[in-house]
Amino acid sequence: MNTTQLTHHDLDGYGASTVVGRFRDVRRVVHIPRYSDVGPVVETELKRLERTKAPELLILTDLGLEEVAVTFIRRFAQMNLKREAERRHRLVVLDHHASSIDQLRAQKLEPQPDPERPALNRFDTGDPDTVVLIDAERCATRMAYEQRALYAPEAGEGDADLATLVAAVDALDLWRKDRPEFLGGLALDEAFWDNVSTLIPVGHPWHDRFVGGLLMALAALLREGLNPAGIEARLGAVRLGLVDDLMAGDPDDDAGLTTRMRVARALARSEELFRPLSDGTLLSFGLDSGAFQRISDLIMEAGRAKRVVNVQRVGTLSFRSNNETALDGARKFRGGGHRDAAGGRLQSGAAFSLADAIAQVEPVLNPPAPDPDASPFAALRALKG
């Protein structure tokens, strides 16, 4: 059964995806930075699952359920009950935000507290294959670990490093300064934010492998007794080891370069990060600005494209070119700059995915030619003809 996980873009969200990935093969992980993006993302998933014949598992972790997310849960359950029993999907929602309970109640889904632990609430949607759990005393990472039987019935307990990761993230995310794991959680959080988007971008097949590997390696150091300063001192070596594994066998790799320079060469060849528009411009979504500058230069140097554009979630666009067309592109998006380096803004002001960015950029950058038959004078010309 194919598995997709939608999770928050923070330490807890990545901790949850790391835990799930240790117990189950997850085909695709979607990291959602803003709760305002949850609606469009789950709507896309619902439409996809409606068309999908084979049953799939969808896991939602740490998304802070708002009205659109609750509506999705109800619609998923209704859709699922209409499918044949052997083709029904499974939805597992694991969250810990108190506001999520309010939103579920607003749509007539009442909490059913666990008799042994009242902070753990289950919600009945009418569909036995839709499981919704809200636990105010556990972070999503810990919920994913303790509730692993919901998505991986045969799973064991995992190893000591995983338990260390769960404890550190739980202490940090719940801001429990009284716990001895709290400082370790802070160290993980700093390392996470310093590396989550600057080396292997979201959307690349290596991304979750890299971030999950980083968290697990640092958890191992915590288990060995290293303090936050010790973790920081070892971080560079940990990252280098992960990159060595990723780049193993790459004929273009040069170990004499920095980790970012080495990885940039591989990313510049990526078909997942860069999608061609109709005019040959390559478009990427949500890349770190430094990474985009480095990778776009390699793309153009290799001859893959003469112009590259990066779209950020907040709606800003960065154009790079080697034929003086970057400024031409930026001007179509109320922007300006240099001939080979310019920027602008989306008309809508935001984008939530690579597909959404393409849908907004393509018609503005490459508007379709006017149809002469659609002219108000076309009918008159036809009569005269």
TrEMBL record:
Protein name: Dimethylmenaquinone methyltransferase
UniProt organism field: Methylobacterium gregans
